[in-house]
Amino acid sequence: MTRMSLKVDGLRELDRALSELPKATQGNVLKRTLLRGAEPVEAAAKSKVKKFTGALERDIETSTKLTRRQAAAARRAGKSQAEVHIGVVDPAGVQTEFGNAHQAADPWFRPAWDESQGEALNEIAGGLGEEIEKARGRLARKAARLAAKNGG
Predict the structure, then answer these.
(1) Element (H or E) spanning 72, and its range?
(2) What residues are paired with 88 via a beta bridge?
(3) Structural domain tally of the chain?
(4) Is residue 86 part of a domain?
């Protein structure tokens, strides 16, 4: 499995705002933002995969859950606050993408990523600020409820 990492510069203010939130809230905000940002990549991948039977298209998904092997690799790589994976569940998708001794490579995910990464990164950068503000609002409402409950 190929692993891609990206570094995005220029989000320092959002990082500061995010760090003001509780740790659990930070992770949830990041997870929601990354899932929303993954949507254009998933859609592009589904449009690019060859429609032999439709099975590969149905098996492309975005998830925060890791397989046992991915979890072990993530532990070795170090902790991050949130990870989202876009890929195909069916091992045939990997064979189609990279090829093997009996089948030539027919890439579909990498071209989908190349085509949609700008849109995904823009969605993440724009959506992160929105999610932080929503989380702040939820925390303020919760604090007001607790204050009302304890005060009255």
Answers:
(1) helix 68-77
(2) 60
(3) 1
(4) yes
Indicate left, alpha or beta for 3 from its phi (over 0: left) and psi (-120 to 50: alpha): beta
pLDDT tens by residue, the chain, 152 residues: 556 666 666 678 888 888 899 988 888 899 999 999 999 999 999 988 877 656 788 889 998 887 788 778 777 766 556 788 888 888 888 888 899 999 899 899 999 999 999 999 999 988 999 999 999 999 999 999 999 988 75
Determine whether 112 is exposed, middle or buried from the number of CB atoms within 10 Å of its CB (0-12, 13-18, 19+).
buried
The letter for the amino acid at 142 is K
Identify the pLDDT of residue 33.
94
Residue 1 domain flag: no
Position 104, amino acid:
A
**Which amino acid, one-letter code, is at 36?**
R
- Spacing of C-alpha 86 from chain mean position: 7
Give the C-alpha separation, 45 to 79, whole Å. 27
> For residue 95, what are the domain limits?
23-151
User: Within 10 Å of residue 117's Cβ, how many Cβ atoms?
Assistant: 16
Residue 82 lies in a domain: yes
